[in-house]
TrEMBL record:
Keywords in alphabetical order: Iron, Metal-binding, Oxidoreductase
Gene Ontology cellular component terms for the protein in this record: cytoplasm; nucleus
A Pfam family that the UniProt record links to this protein: Cupin_8
Encoding gene, per UniProt annotation: JMJD4
Keyword Oxidoreductase on entry: yes
Protein name: 2-oxoglutarate and iron-dependent oxygenase JMJD4
One GO MF term attached to the UniProt entry: 2-oxoglutarate-dependent dioxygenase activity
GO BP term, pick one: positive regulation of translational termination
Domain of life: Eukaryota
JmjC domain span: 140-299
Organism listed in the record: Scleropages formosus
Family: Belongs to the JMJD6 family.
Reaction(s) the record says it catalyses: L-lysyl-[protein] + 2-oxoglutarate + O2 = 4-hydroxy-L-lysyl-[protein] + succinate + CO2
Cofactor(s) of this protein: Fe(2+)
Organism placement in taxonomy: Eukaryota, Metazoa, Chordata, Craniata, Vertebrata
Length: 425
């Protein structure tokens, strides 16, 4: 990112996002067919405006998994997969069973899942065990030495996984494997993060609704639809606003292709064939504002739910944070911690670019990602962190947490960011 692009992107990121009306009119998404597409074009054309697209199979052509895990006929290579994973415990969902608003999971040895999958195919893609789907498997974290794929450049500014890699607690990089007919119910991604999903083999059908359209897909009790293709949605007594919803985008994703799902786009996904895919959830400076809005909305929902206890509990606000974290996976403190890690990494990188290491000391070695994206991208990230911190520091619920309990000293961090940006831009 150069200086001119930095200023353009900062201005765009502060502007209101578009209404997505063009998707209603055209019912198609852009297809990026050439690897020559620049990072800047993708950044300003899709990340900032929060719009989906599909990348051609040339972007995954060199991945080891596409050669190792796939037969010459384009099917999953069960023999090679068993060589790699064999007894590894993996999370498996039963698509035929509804538990709350998702599918129940169990942990199975990988070889047992493959045995089931083979039998499922032999029985005409059916089984008395239901339709099982290996999903949300942290394979990249468990088997880093395999190096079966590389993150495309467009998705490498990844604050979520950068934070979790630093904290060594978790990550949001997954492998999915499922037979024809396996599917994922209607949802939006964790924290309203972005996601990208690459088909290693097989084909998927995606049903997408732009942000806001999900409100028309709630039942009379306010619950989000589980399956947006179910005939019950046409019952006006149960789903009184269904007819107001736009027609969804429907995308067929072929083998090798990558789909980019922006923040807050609800979606439902079907495997049209026996399919293997790799998926990342991530956030960065382009959608951090949407993540913060989501957290505020989630906390408000918790506060409404237990509002009657507010006057009887001295630690009511703390309890709200605990409940929020149990429901969403993150609370205000952890979000502030994430911003601190991201900011510190970029402050250190910009200091090294300016020769800011102490006399006689070795300058810090920047990550490959920061070195590739460059100082102007780091400055953009810092500006977006600063804007988010300003919003958080003005939020009454955040103020109630108290600086002592945060440990991240957001006011001090914000001041350092401002000083760095003044000297950098």
């Amino acid at each position: 990112m150069d200086r001119e692009t930095f200023h353009a992107c900062c201005s765009t990121a502060r502007a209101p996002r578009r209404s997505y009306a063009r998707f209603r009119a055209a019912n198609f998404v852009d297809y990026i067919a050439r690897r020559e597409c620049s990072y800047v074009r993708f950044f300003s054309g899709y990340l900032v405006p929060n719009e989906p697209c599909v990348l051609a199979s040339c972007f995954t052509a060199g991945w080891r998994c596409r050669a190792r895990w796939v037969t010459a006929e384009g099917k999953p290579d069960f023999g090679r997969l068993l060589q790699d994973f064999d007894e590894t415990p993996v999370p498996v969902a039963n698509c035929a069973v509804k538990e709350y608003n998702s599918n129940p999971k169990q942990i199975l040895p990988f070889k047992e899942f493959i045995s089931y999958w083979k039998e499922y195919i032999q029985n005409g893609h059916s089984s008395t065990r239901g339709c099982l789907y290996l999903k949300d498997w942290h394979m990249p974290r468990e088997f880093p030495a395999l190096a079966v794929y590389s993150t495309p450049k467009f998705f490498c500014s990844d604050w979520l996984n950068e934070y979790w890699d630093a904290s060594e607690g978790d990550d949001y990089r997954f492998v999915y494997m499922g037979p024809k007919g396996s599917w994922t119910p209607f949802h939006a991604d964790v924290f309203r993060s972005y996601s990208w999903s690459a088909n290693i083999c097989g084909r998927k059908k995606w049903i997408l609704y732009p942000p806001g359209q999900e409100e028309f897909l709630r039942d009379c009790h306010g619950n989000l639809a589980y399956d947006v293709t179910a005939p019950v949605l046409r019952d006006k007594k149960l789903y009184p606003r269904y007819e107001e919803a736009w027609q969804p985008l429907e995308i067929i994703q072929e083998a090798g292709e990558i789909i980019f799902i922006p923040s807050g786009w609800h979606h439902q996904v079907y495997n049209l064939e026996d399919t293997i895919s790799i998926n990342h959830n991530w956030l960065n400076g382009c959608n951090v504002d949407l993540v913060w809005q989501f957290l505020q909305q989630e906390l408000s929902a918790v506060q409404r739910e237990i509002g009657e206890w507010r006057s009887t509990m001295e630690t009511w606000h703390e309890h709200c944070q605990v409940i929020m974290k149990s429901c969403t996976g993150i609370d205000y403190r952890q979000f502030a911690s994430l911003l601190k890690v991201i900011a510190e990494n970029r402050l250190s990188y910009l200091s090294s670019c300016a020769g800011g290491a102490a006399a006689g000391a070795e300058p810090p070695v920047p990550s490959e990602t920061l070195a590739m994206l460059g100082p102007h991208h780091a400055a953009f990230d810092l500006q977006q962190v600063a804007l988010t911190l300003e919003l958080m520091l003005a939020d009454d619920n955040f103020k109630r947490l108290g600086p002592a309990s945060l440990g991240s000293q957001p006011e001090s961090l914000l001041q350092r960011i401002r000083e760095t940006l003044r000297s950098t831009i």
